[in-house]
Amino acid sequence: MDILSLSHISKRFGRLPVIKDLSFSVPEHSVFGFIGKNGSGKTTTMKMILGFLSMDGGEIKVCGEKVVYGSSKTNRFIGYLPDVPQFYPYMTPKEYLALCGKVAGLSAERTAKRSQELLTLVGLDGIDRRIRGFSRGMNQRLGIAQALLSEPKLLICDEPTSALDPIGRKEILDILAVAKTSTTILFSTHILSDVERVCDNIGVLDEGVLKLEGNLNDIKNSYRQDTALISLADPGRNQELMEGLSQLSIIKGCTEKERDVVVRFTGTEAARRQILELLLSRNLPLVRFELLEPTLENLFLEVVQ
Ligand SMILES: Nc1ncnc2c1ncn2[C@@H]1O[C@H](COP(=O)(O)OP(=O)(O)OP(=O)(O)O)[C@@H](O)[C@H]1O
């Protein structure tokens, strides 16, 4: 079942179109990485999912219910962590969650039990000092605890790791990996290694257009055999190799990387044969021919160019 679905969403600010015919869905208990450069439209999309911004076209459904601008009805299914969460700095984490529980209409008993579980999950259990003076990582962790308090079906996090150091980032990603067992997560980011660590599905947004979407492993597999690294015994002849490669119709491009040549091609078997025939015909002795694992970074650069 899809917890979230967007179909043909469009949005403009004045005359500027910022979201163009955007459609994707997020299945239950998955982590969806919403990827895009600054200004690509991620926050705008999340605000429309939360009903904080109107849409110019299309439909968003959360748990099968239509999102209506200005109405927070579907937000009962959602926990939201903004990019810079704000708290009452004079409270302790426990006091703050008790207040949030009250505002959300949870019983005191339920809030106390849930707070205990969540503070343990985010590593803030036993921290009785005031929130003032918390590190950015601690703030983000408390923000996740707050967002999960009402046991939402969908957790939306806006760039949860962007301002953190590698240890802080890992802590957040580990928490999201655990949270995934009880909720569904959509998080926006431009840090591709974070996406590779926790996401099941991804969507790459570029200037309001979804350029790539699907299961992360499927996407990587579909690009798997498209890139190869060629090491010649004499790297001084790399230019000659690249000239020859550029004359083959199956070659999409090639570049020199240190002492090697990286070549992108279409068609797998036939392409490999043609490349090897070229090496033989030009008498270019080979030291290594390796199909490269696609990295998300390469895919990203390819689709957003
Ligand atoms: N309230 C607004 N009025 C006018 N233009 C806006 C408004 N909010 C966002 N924009 C523009 O819409 C585009 C998308 O912005 P958005 O904040 O959604 O991008 P983003 O992908 O979240 O970027 P970032 O990673 O920098 O937060 C940008 O060009 C931005 O300048």
TrEMBL record:
Gene Ontology MF terms in the entry: ATP binding; ATP hydrolysis activity
Q: Which Pfam families match?
A: ABC_tran, DrrA1-3_C
Q: Which CDD domains match?
A: ABC_DR_subfamily_A (cd03230)
User: SMART domains, alphabetically?
Assistant: AAA
Task: Look up the domain of life of the source.
Answer: Bacteria
Under the heading InterPro entries, the entry gives: AAA+_ATPase, ABC_transporter-like_ATP-bd, DrrA1/2-like_C, P-loop_NTPase
Keyword hit for Nucleotide-binding: yes
Tell me the PROSITE patterns matching this sequence: ABC_TRANSPORTER_2
| Residue span(s) of domain ABC transporter | 4-232
What's in the keyword line of the UniProt record?
ATP-binding, Nucleotide-binding, Transport
Protein family per UniProt: Belongs to the ABC transporter superfamily.
Identify this protein by name: ABC transporter ATP-binding protein
